[in-house]
Design brief:
Elements (H helix, E strand, L loop, with lengths): L4 H12 L7 H13 L5 H12 L4 H12 L7 H12 L4 E2 L1 H14 L3 H14 L4 E2 L2
Parallel strand pairs: 1-2
Length: 134
Amino acid sequence: MKTNSKALASFLAAAVWADGEYCEFEQSLAAEMGELLDAKTLTKDLEAAITATENMSAEELTAKLEAAANQVDATEKEGVLTLCLQMLCSDAFLSSDEVENFFAFAELLGVDEDDAQAILDVFVDEEEDLIIEE
């Protein structure tokens, strides 16, 4: 992965906070992501990003994510968005707030809304056990 692990961790931390806790499923997923992406420090970077963002205002978090988005390789923006979606859904539940966060991440990353919708649609179709809040 060309993207800096700390930049990815910033987005994943925001996804973790969507449901308010860094649970066992999210920890396991972060470890798997780090292994698959050969990002050896991802788990450590994510834990640091979670701690750093814990008490941030929405404006501060947005500024942090804007800075992180600038560090995401242009060829990996949709991939980072997909990883955020996986983290948002690590508990097998997708709430309307998490969908809003997903599209906010897409905007920050510069991913077109139609492309983001396509990523979401494919993900939802492929995840058989996903519970979606109506």
